[in-house]
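Kindly review this protein for my students:
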Amino acid sequence: MGLDFTAIDFETANSHSASACSVGLVKMRDGKVVDESSWLIHPPLGFDSFSEWNTRIHGIMAPDVADAPLWSEQLPDLAAFVGKDVLVAHNAGFDMGVIAAACEASHVDCPDFSYICSLLVARRTYHLDSYRLPVAAMAAGFEDFEHHNALADARACAAIVAHAARRHDAEDLEHLAQITSQRVRTIGSKAKAAENETYRSMALN
């Protein structure tokens, strides 16, 4: 089974999507972990204040990221780790929103990334009272992890997708997306070009 992808998770300093303060990345090949990485991020300037609420959730404080690279400085490392992989995130709209907003706040181009959502995968695979990451991960046999630690959450996300793919006999990530009634979406210049083309088509009709 060619189940290749990179799972990703962000934690933010405050309620603004641009305030990324940590990232976790897990690379999967044939449904198995082959590499992983995580690091702290100094959020883009102007979006780098830490709210008490967010710190309570993930435990990261302003002094922890004081010497960490800015988003604009660490983005090449993130893009290099992902390569041409499709990204997978739990409630992917949040994590993709972090990438887009942090790039905009840093005045850098948003890379072209493709992605699917493990939350949607879980909803169409398991019958649960809740599809929050810890509950869905437990259904996938991945338990007792440090929720809101970015790397631990990325590992949980990867485990959900790998387990769901086996249950659905999915040949690859694109096949799993079809089975779970979603399509591989994109962010970055390709997504903007497609959006502009849609608007042009609507204007002509």
In short: The longest strand covers residues 20-29. The longest helix spans residues 150-168. The domain at 5-204 is CATH 3.30.420.10 (Nucleotidyltransferase; domain 5).
